[in-house]
Amino acid sequence: MAVLADYVAEKALDATNPKIGARAGAMFTRAVDTRTVLYLLRLRCQLQIERRGPDGRFSPLRSLLAEECLGVAVRGGASPEIMTEDDALSLLTLEPGRNMADGQKVHLVRQALDALPGMEDAFARVAHEQARGLLADHRRVREASDARGLRYDVVPALPVDQIGVYVFMPMASL
Length: 174
Description:
Blueprint: H1 2-12, E1 24-29, E2 36-52, E3 58-75, E4 81-82, H2 85-90, H3 102-114, H4 116-144, E5 150-156, E6 161-170
Parallel strand pairs: 1-6
Antiparallel strand pairs: 2-3, 2-5, 2-6, 3-4
């Protein structure tokens, strides 16, 4: 499985055969009632750990990097609504409804990419929420291990990396 995953990851960056492991696409589906875009984001956070010295002051002990990928789904066009994480993940299981012409796919993906600058604030809010969650998780683990004299902070690296975009279009009813 690892060999297959490495192959797909390498081919996703290959411009000569974009269909293998593509990080952009569009499809018609009966499962959405309005244009919905799933942005695949890579979030990086700096976990900073400080230790209290004998003088009571904190000094840097180490800095760690936490990295995760997540999907952020946006429904609608004029005033887009960010969907819940569970709803965003459910988009990955949708069945295509019918074929879409390559030119239309390119147009829809281009529209989604053109909307990225307007999404930066929303993506930053998501990154800060994820950083707060990571900090809370880290504190719980450290408290459970009875670590004392340490202080933690998690800072998201902004802007987040946008590494994929998938557009889901509703099917016209007959």
